[in-house]
Amino acid sequence: MNDTLVLLRTRRSVPPAQLSGPGPTPEDVETLLTVAARVPDHGKLAPWRFIVIAGEGAARIGAVIAATYAADHPEADEARLAVERNRLAQAPLVVAVVSRAGPHVKIPEWEQVLSAGAAAMNLCLAANAMGFRTAWLTEWIAYDRRILDALGLSPEERLAGFVHVGRAEQTPPDRPRPELAAVVTRF
What we know:
Blueprint: H1 3-10, H2 26-36, E1 48-53, H3 56-72, H4 78-85, E2 93-99, H5 109-129, E3 133-137, H6 145-151, E4 158-166, H7 180-183
Antiparallel strand pairs: 1-2, 2-4, 3-4
Helix pairs in contact: 2-5, 3-4, 3-6
């Protein structure tokens, strides 16, 4: 089996708390985003975009996340607010994949949404192929309009997810995967 198939068959998500540096270099990030953008895109709409979050950017959005959480949960203690503040700062790099899907005369919105998902998965696979580990997550922050506004999403945009990228000391054990017989129909 070639290396690509081995990667595809064995890729696993690693929780962000287990991701550390060194993170991708600027050149690595350019490669990751180039590969992420190379997905099926009916109509060449590029119905997605990327927000790169690292370093001071992670601290800035972390402050917004913590303040938003505190506004909704006045009982939250400092330990809980620290968790929220660091939500996007655990891995050295986080890429927010934004879906820009919308009405189009020829291209169904569903196809555009799928293209954004493909971009996120390509990003995960590219990072893994480069020796990094990833976690693609949404969590509450992907659905809170205050956070989306702070990240610069327009009202028409949605967050496909946050892809956390870093290095991992250990690869977690594989989770149970569906038996093919349960998910495959032959016609």
